Amino acid sequence: MHSSKMRRKVVPASTDNGDSADKQDQLLVSAAICNGEDLGPFVRKAFASGKPETLLHHLRHFSRSKESEIEDVCRAHYQDFIMAVDDLRSLLSDVDSLKSSLSISNSQLQSVALPLLTSLDSFVEARNKCKNITLAIESLRTCAQLVELCSRANFHLSNNNFYMALKCVDSIEREFLKKMPSSTLRRMLEKQIPEIRAHIERKVSKEFGDWLVEIRIVSRNLGQLAIGQASAARQREEELRIKQREAEEQSRLSLRDCVYALEEEDDEGLDGFCENNREGYGNGGAGALGFDLMPLYRAHHIHQTLGLEDRFRQYYFENRKLQLTSDFQVSSMTPFLESHQTFLAQIAGFFIVEDRVLRTGGGLISKMEVENLWDTAVSKMCSVLEDQFSRMQTANHLLLIKDYVSLLGVTLRRYGYPTDALLDVLSKHRDKYHELLLSDCRKQIAEALAADKLEQMYMKKEYEYSMNVLSFQLQTSNLMPAFPYVAPFSSTVPDCCRIVRSFIEDSVSFMSYGGQLEFYDVVKKYLDRLLAEVLDGALLKIINTSVNGVTQAMQMAANMAVFERACDFFFRHAAQLSGIPLRMAERGRKQFPLTKARDAAEEMLSGLLKHKVDGFLTLIENVNWMADETPQGGNEYANEVIIFLETLVSTAQQILPVEVLKRVLQDVLCHISEMIVGALLGESVKRFNVNAIMGLDVDIRMLESFAENQATLLSDADANQLKTALVESRQLINLLLSNHPENFLNPVIRERSYNALDYRKVVAISEKLRDQSDRLFGSFGTRGAKQNTKKKSLDALIKRLKDVN
């Protein structure tokens, strides 16, 4: 054997410079051989130099040096080799002794074991017979068990207990088919087992098909029930809100004798459907509703047992998808208003069933598949709703469908289905709904106004007062009036209030449950349009076309004042229904939306009253403008006007609010003042004297006294404001009666005492007083000097004013 250790590399010893080259080559060859290096270079060198004998000599020298080393090694190991040979000879002697001993033992064993071997052969033969008998018994027992299982399988099949029958068949196939000793029975089993499985599959598939037909009807009823329960829950919420609003209203009116009670609500949702524990097959629903999933679960379980679960899952999904597609069909023969509940309830019931199957079906349908079905359903419902909404021209119809769609959304959100897309469709048609609602209200308001005779309402019973006054918070006092009660407004007010209140409730109903939590601003926007465009426009049209006479004009003005209180109620009512605090609604209030109609009504009343007053003011022509003395009791026209105004106030204060009456009286008094100034300025009066002016002063004092007397009805400040309506005629008379009329030229005095006068009118009227004969002032007697001074002052005033002009 070769040693595994690497040989040490021999390095040639360095030589002195005096050694010969031959000696050096010999050392190099020896070192190369010791190191196991290639001798090719040495050979090539030797032949190249033509001295191969030298190389051969070196090799022989190396061989002789190594032979001596071998001899040394052999001498060192010779003794060990001799000892090993001696041990081997001793071992051969022991082997011969062992061979003799084994031969003797074998002979003894053969003589002893011969009887035993004979007995063993007899035992083996008996044991083989026993095994054959045992095998026969086992075969009989196996056949007996097989027959029993076959009998049990037939029994389960006859009782339609397919799962247990399949278990029996599987047990036969697993435990008996391969080890069946009878080939006849084996062939029979191999033929019958597939047929039994096919028979069970056909039976279960038929039951499942019947269930698919039945579940469509069940789904519709289930959807209607679910949506009905959502509607009942919403109704309970509305009733609770109504009670809350009533409590807030009582609190606002400081009615502390309120009765509070706790109410228990019975939450009868669809979650109350009993979910039976699935042991074998679960019912999975409420038996009273026919919501029975047992045929489905049974079919699924049987197909699982048959190893056909994936095929059945696909078959179930495809059939349900086809049913959903069929449910999307909308009949063109039936109006959607009549069929929308059935259409939506069918879809709702479908997904309620699918949710139950998803949660209890053991993987029969996946969440992703249900979501895909729902996305398809939402897309189709949105398309149908878009199409149907675009055709509708009645707000009430659109509201009915919207309510049912929102109930559908509430119902299915409880099962985890997203309904934002449906709510978006409703939001898109918000403007159209309100436009239709405004159109309906415009017709109703026009009919209500056309039917009104502009007469005060007469209420005999308390319920009439409650229905027409309290329900709209039109009362000015919390005390119940005596009956019969004559209201200060006509039937227009409660009729229009009912229309507006209905508009608010319909608008809130449309906006509620539509996914938008804060919708008061939207309701308020359309309410502003209803009041400012529809109601205000209709009232304005009636005022301009149908109001005849002071009585009707006064009634219309009274109605407008009541409408102002009603508008406060409208915005409060909208805020309450929208669920926001009243203080927020009050903060966002604008000015009275019926301003145009109110101003037109007051202007109409003022115009008719002015026309009446003009009839009395025609008597101003009977005034003696060159009277010799001042009339003591005032002129005739003034007395007639005062009588008319007092009669007007006594009548108007019964129905007109104080502010409206003040504005009307102020307008009439201002008109009277203008007419008095106009009479002095007119062509019919050529000249007048101081006595005539003093007579006018008495007339104006009577009118001012009338205004002051209204302080009992109005406030003192309002009475003083009424007097300011006569300011032009009062300042003119004061100027004409002044001893220093030239003070009119003083800016300070003019601003303080004559700021209502137009200097052009002053010039024209003063010239008429100036254009008198000297006899004009003869009646002043001893005051001639003062008259002359006054005349000079007046002449100077006229001259200066003409220069300015």
Along the chain, the helix and strand elements come as HHHHHHHHHHHHEHEHHHHHHHHHHHHH
Question: Given the C-alpha coordinates, what overall shape results?
Answer: elongated
Number of strands: 2
How is the main sheet built?
Answer: 2 strands, antiparallel
The strands making up the biggest β-sheet line up spatially as 1-2
Rounded Rg:
62 Å
Query: Whole-Å distance between the termini?
Result: 154 Å
The percent range for strand residues is under 5%
Percent range of helical residues = over 70%
Mean pLDDT value = 78
Could you name the ranges where pLDDT drops below 50 across 5 or more consecutive residues? 1-18, 255-290, 770-787
Count the helices. How many? 26
Give an account of the 3D structure:
This protein is mainly α. The chain has four domains: 41-142; 195-246 and 290-416, no CATH class; 428-586, Orthogonal Bundle (Tetracycline Repressor, domain 2); 622-771 and 787-801, Tetracycline Repressor, domain 2 (Orthogonal Bundle), CATH 1.10.357. It is built from 26 helices and two strands. It has helices spanning 21-34, 40-49, 52-158, 162-175, 183-252, 294-305, 309-327, 336-360, 367-391, 395-413, 420-428, 430-451, 462-468, 492-511, 520-545, 549-578, 582-587, 595-617, 636-652, 658-681, 690-709, 716-723, 727-737, 747-753, 759-770, 784-804, and strands at residues 458-459, 485-486. A two-stranded antiparallel sheet has the order 1-2. Residues 1-18, 255-290 and 770-787 have low confidence and may be disordered. It is found in: Cytoplasm, Cytosol. InterPro entries: EXOC6/Sec15, EXOC6/Sec15_C, EXOC6/Sec15_C_dom1, EXOC6_Sec15_N, EXOC6PINT-1/Sec15/Tip20_C_dom2. Residues 58-227 form the Exocyst complex component EXOC6/Sec15 N-terminal domain.
